[in-house]
Amino acid sequence: MPPTLIHLLRLDLLADHFVLIDKQSFCYCSPSSLPMDPALRCQQLFKLKPKWKLEEIGRFIKPLTYDEKKVDSILLKHCRKITEAGDDGVYFVSRKRVKL
Question: Domain map of the chain by residue range?
Answer without folding.
Answer: 6-94
